[in-house]
Amino acid sequence: MIRLIGLQPTYMPGDTLEFEYRVANVDRGSIVAVECSVCWLTEGKGTEDLGVHFFQRLAGDSLAAIDWSIAQKISCPLPISPLSYEGKLLKISWCVRVRFFLNDGTELMAQQPFYVGTITREV
Amino acid sequence: MSGWWFIGSLGEALFFATVFLIGVFLSAILISWQLMSQSTQPLKIGYGFWLFLGVCLSFSVLGIVGFWYRVLKVVTSDEHREVLAQRGIIPEPLSGPQQPKRTSHAPSIPDVKRFTDSPGARLAYRLPSQIPENGALVALGIFAMAWNAMIAVFLVIAAQNYLRFEIPWQLLLLLIPGIYVAIRSAQLFFRSFIRTLGIGSTTVEIEALPLVPGGEYRLEIVQYGRLVIKKIAVRLECEEESTYHFGTDLRTERQTVFSTEIASHGRDRIDWGYPLRMECRFSVPEDAMHSFQSKHNAVQWKIVVNGEANRWPLYSRSFPVLVYPQPGMSRPAAAS
């Protein structure tokens, strides 16, 4: 589960994005790696593009040191671009993504979208 | 991750691994036969040897790149792969905001230097032009030149045969449509070339770059040439561009999402040394999306000059500009 701490629908460029994530109903010993990222992606007619603004991968010792009973908090400043956008051929959206890799090869993924800027419609 | 996905990924990885092994195996055989054992020399060291070695090495490179691309696609997430592509395979601390390779104040916005490297005569910058007809003209010129050269060679061969009292009927049958295509392509090329020369060049200068939403800017348009202009109109346009795969084709679709006329000029005569000069002011809309460029998608702003002249077809010339996000964008009252 991902929760944006700011609880606001729109973030402005340069704002600090604060969020926390936790995992439930999963054997903690079965988690091999965790990846957490803040990224933008394009949707629409064109091939999907992905830009990663923040990326954190936890595995091995850094993963073993984590207490999963409490939510993991992360904060990162947002860049000035690209802004969220809904056009005719393409849409740019921002999201926080967390992936859990388990030792049986399973991958769990959670995603929380958010807006950057106020241009969420075609000009 | 379906069964087909698993089988497909495994199959592709195996295919590229096999290509790599074949390349390495053949390279090893070639080098060992050629250099280690003097008694068995299947190829002399010359063009044949280097060509065969080049093919073997290209198999190896294709195989290893394809293999690791497939493997990385399976064992890493999309985000991790993107980070590796930015930073390289050598590991670095994998946390914190990503720094793009290019030092740019605004990620995913084209570099402003490309637009500001040409100073203007009256205003600060002369905008780079983007004339689609020029690309077609060059392509047509290359085709016409190559085709005419090929036909000339065949004509010489036919003439030589004729002088030896042998009439090459098959070659003559091929030459008839070939000569028609050669004449038509040369005609088309010179017609386009004369049109480009006759209408003359267009230059656009602007007082500041990059543009920001809500900002007002001065613009000067100069139309050179020797012609009578019926109408010339200048527009500010925003265009979305998406590139996608359609079967084995790579297609690009463009759509104009914003267009406004910022200046126009009626009937006028221009001559060599007396170009048409137009000055105007325009503003970028407050809610404009900034310029954006990613691998397959883009949002592009441009100044478009559309002209109509006596005895010439309509013409259109584009001058890309860069729009940055508004500096100090504040939170709207409704959202707070």
Quick structural summary:
The complex is a heterodimer of chains A (123) and B (336). With 123 residues, chain A is mostly beta strands.
Largest interface: A-B, 46 and 48 residues
Distance between the termini of chain A: 34 Å
The CATH class of the largest domain in chain B turns out to be Mainly Beta
Write down the CATH class of the domain at 2-39 and 50-78 and 95-112 in chain A. Mainly Beta
SS summary, helix count of chain B: 6
Helix percentage of chain A = under 10%
Mean pLDDT across all amino acids of chain B: 83
Oligomer: heterodimer
What is the helix/strand order of chain A?
EEEEEHEEEE
Written as H for each helix and E for each strand, in order along the chain, the element string of chain B is HHHHEHHEEEEEEEEE
Map the helices and strands.
The complex is a heterodimer of chains A (123) and B (336).
Chain A (H helix, E strand, L loop, with lengths): L1 E3 L5 E2 L4 E6 L9 E14 L5 E10 L1 H4 L7 E6 L7 E2 L3 E13 L4 E10 L7
Parallel strand pairs in A: 2-9
Antiparallel strand pairs in A: 1-3, 3-6, 4-5, 4-8, 7-8, 8-9
Chain B lengths: L2 H34 L10 H29 L2 H10 L25 H4 L8 E2 L5 H32 L5 H31 L2 E5 L9 E8 L3 E20 L2 E17 L2 E3 L5 E8 L8 E2 L3 E13 L5 E7 L15
Antiparallel strand pairs in B: 1-2, 2-3, 3-7, 4-5, 4-6, 4-9, 8-9, 9-10
Helix pairs in contact in B: 1-2, 5-6
How would you portray this structure in words?
The complex is a heterodimer of chains A (123) and B (336). The mean pLDDT of chain A is 86. In chain A, strand 4 and strand 5 form a beta hairpin. The longest helix of chain A is centred in the middle third of the chain and has 4 residues. Chain A starts with a strand and ends in a 7-residue tail after the last strand. With 123 residues, chain A is mainly beta. Chain B is flat and about 80 Å long. Chain B is built from six helices and ten strands. In chain B, strand 4 and strand 5 form a beta hairpin. In chain B, the strands form two sheets. In chain B, strands 4, 5, 6, 8, 9 and 10 form a six-stranded antiparallel sheet that branches. Chain B has a four-stranded antiparallel sheet with strand order 1-2-3-7, with no helix packed on it. With 336 residues, chain B is an alpha+beta fold. Chain B has three domains: 85 residues; 138 residues, Immunoglobulin-like, CATH 2.60.40.640; 66 residues. The chains are: A mainly beta (123), B alpha+beta (336). Chains A and B meet through strand 4, strand 5 and strand 8 of A and helix 3, strand 4 and strand 5 of B.
